[in-house]
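Task card 7
Instruction: Convert sequence to structure tokens.
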Amino acid sequence: MVLTITQQTFDEAVQENINDLGMSPEEAVTEAVAQFKAQGVDLRQIVTEVGASSCCENLVNIVKQLAEFRDKNVSQECSDLLLALKQECDKGIQYRVQAGRASAYDVILDIFLKSEAEKDLKQTVLRAMISLMTKQPDLLDAKGIQIIVANLEKISDPDIQKLILKWCKECCLMHEMNRQHLIDSNIVDKLSALLQEGNSYILKELLTVLRVLILDDDVRVEFGRAHEHARIIAVETLTHINELLKKYKTDDALVNDLMLTISALLVRTEFCVQVEESGGIEVIHEVMTNFTKNEKIIRQCFKIIKALAGNDSCKVHIIQKGLAPTISESLNVHQGVVQTATAGLHCIAALTLRCPENSKVLFEASVPEVIIEIMKKHPDEKSVQKTASWAIRNMVSRSRYQNTHFLELGTEELLHKNFAKFKDLQYDTKAALRDLGCEVDLKEEWTGKGGKISSETHLDNNMC
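Output:
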């Protein structure tokens, strides 16, 4: 269990070191930090700098002065205070925590509601709110959710919507209950309407919110609703995102986010079919051709192809529509980047799983040579070697005529090196060696005695 203390407790410990031990402020802070860390106290939310108490007092004073504008007209002074609060919050999570404890969240919300007609002030308010709630999503309440949803109407100002979406993202990161409350508040309907509008100015932030709504990153919640959220969002938005991908397929700034969002939403086989029927495979092929040298976009293409290959018919159609040479060429171009190489090998493994027809076409597209080159280039990268083993195994398991060529490329030697080097990859390595026809020592994990269990023994076991 993590121990925590308040800022006041820390400040008192520093003051005691100064008064009782005659330490300088710097020495007192260093000693207090060492003492609390030795006791296992988490100090990430505590201001541990020299003069921490004055910093916290300054924060509290800023919030108090802002609170006065609840009952009087806002002015330039209010904007200056909001900027000052943002600057303090930008210093770190410990400052944001102190501001939150000083009721900064409630004060900012009230000022936002009071400044409905003043766009510049609303933007300043929202920027302060984003800074306050970065890595501190617990502050969000029903009132905040209502404001977020209300300002995502199509008639709202795009500049305000952009900031609202950024605020929404911070509210969803590492907070399952916030995500559930936003989904329950029909935020998906608002986001779907904005997607239909297709405003490129807010599209990146809009897609980011869709992705964070389907995260499962809150360790405080045993069972999240990420899959259900993905299903709800896919039903409402996948068609619109597919259309936007066609519209912005030449825009490298947006196509990456669009493809990343689509791959995140492909959690069911019917969604894969939906993407294919809307011409998604052809668009992906065109994107890979247009952005061959763009490593990030190619990586997202590999991920979305892998996701689509989860549907057996889509898996076949991907290769039938001529993507094999493009996949091989793209993987060859970016074989030096570990993450992209791993994604590409995942893609090949998915496409060739129980599909000898795909394996044949990829084999003819020189994929074996690319796989072996990647294994040689990244001998110490476990993720690369693991996915390479999967790709080799799936390619040859139902196409044994490929074994000779793989062995001529030196595959057996590489796999034996991996077997000795990576103990936790031995199962995957053995599977590849076995299907290549190589000698491999298969360990029998469990051996039954055989024979028939007597009724007496069966009764004795039940009694135990």
